[in-house]
Amino acid sequence: MRKVIIAGNWKMFKTQTEAQEFLQGFTSHLDETSEDREVVLCVPFTTLGIMSKSLHGSRILLGAQNIHWEDSGAYTGEISGPMLLEFGIRYVVVGHSERRQYFGETDETVNWRLRAAQRHGLTPILCVGETKQQRDAGETERLIFSQLEKDLIGVDQNNLVIAYEPIWAIGTGDTCETTEANRVIGLIRSKLINPNVTIQYGGSVKPDNIDEIMAQPEIDGALVGGASLQPESFARIVNYQ
Ligand SMILES: O=C[C@H](O)COP(=O)(O)O
């Protein structure tokens, strides 16, 4: 039985005050019927402290958006596993396309970060996905298989979540056809040693498309950016039918 995980990725949004305001609205909108799924918020480092306190005893789990591969060292601007563990987090996003595109993340550094997360008992959410150009050139499968092959060297597939995020669908409102997302996720699963890895879809997930996305047999959850910033819209996504 595969675990269903709906995760919000706040990216570089929300101050501590805004994070607390979000939680007040969000928790009151969660349905009891959604208890069969895990709810995760991957928040900016600066809100981990306040979120950790506010979520104590709650069903909502906390995640970070990056982790360095070393435990400490001269790496200005980076955050390590032991630093994250102090906040009681369970998940960490690794290899998001924005990290790959704007911050020089490579498959090699993604692999190091994945293994560091697991070394500290955290569950990494590995993001893979193709650009519009790669899709149009018919390179989607080759690119994703290459990412998986390189990123997963030495990674324990029993403590792993994968998010298929077509880059052209991120923040654009241009959602991937649900049947196509299902097809690609099925292909990703076929390349794994552990077929029970939770594989999410990410890219313009909204309250009005989540039911259709989650009805697809290969899709085990969602990694939600923009629509996770508003309490009502993220609660509607978590409460999908
Ligand atoms: O991590 C989340 C994804 O990048 C999706 O972002 P989005 O829901 O704003 O398209």
Automatic annotation (TrEMBL):
Pathway: Carbohydrate degradation; glycolysis; D-glyceraldehyde 3-phosphate from glycerone phosphate: step 1/1; Carbohydrate biosynthesis; gluconeogenesis. The active site is at residues 96, 165. It catalyses: D-glyceraldehyde 3-phosphate = dihydroxyacetone phosphate. Keywords: Cytoplasm, Gluconeogenesis, Glycolysis, Isomerase. PROSITE patterns: TIM_1, TIM_2. Its EC number is 5.3.1.1. The keyword Cytoplasm applies. SUPFAM superfamilies: Triosephosphate isomerase (TIM). GO terms for molecular function: triose-phosphate isomerase activity. It is found in: Cytoplasm. Involved in the gluconeogenesis. Catalyzes stereospecifically the conversion of dihydroxyacetone phosphate (DHAP) to D-glyceraldehyde-3-phosphate (G3P). Belongs to the triosephosphate isomerase family. Homodimer. This is Triosephosphate isomerase. It comes from Planktothrix mougeotii LEGE 06226. The lineage of its organism: Bacteria, Bacillati, Cyanobacteriota, Cyanophyceae, Oscillatoriophycideae.
